[in-house]
Model the fold of this input.
Amino acid sequence: MLYLCLMQKLKTCAFIDGSNIYFAQKKINIWLDWGKVKLYLEKKYDIKAIRYYIGIRKNDRTSQTFLKKLEKIRFTIIKKPVKIITNEFGKKIEKANFDVEITADIMTSLKKIDAVVLFSGDSDFAYLAELLNRQKKQIFVYSSKKTLSWELKLSAHRYFFIDNLSLLTKRRRFIRI
Done:
């Protein structure tokens, strides 16, 4: 008798470090189409949730428009105000770090999922990846070749470069010269 082994998709939640992935995209000049990303993730994994973490500036209409689009495709948005910090040289720096929130949300989701998809290249998540490995949970990291830290690269179950995901990018109009 011939038995067919069907591979089941891993129960997965996706966590997107909005600031980190924004600067990764900016650095390589590739802009992900989050609708296409969602479809890609749903084909590859049994997606239970997609959570997007973002700092919000006062009266930032561009961000509000972007967030409405994400909500329309059923992303869960986690936001907080951007803080303005003055460094020791008097330079003002915007800050909205979500490492703790992402880590806490991942750890509280572990009973319901088999794997984590993390859109970030931040080395701060290397320890989290090690903890997930010890819990027998897989972690798939998406970042760019230029921004994926070596610590996270070594700790992740697998990593993917958004540089290679051209099918998931926004279409651009070509400007005639």
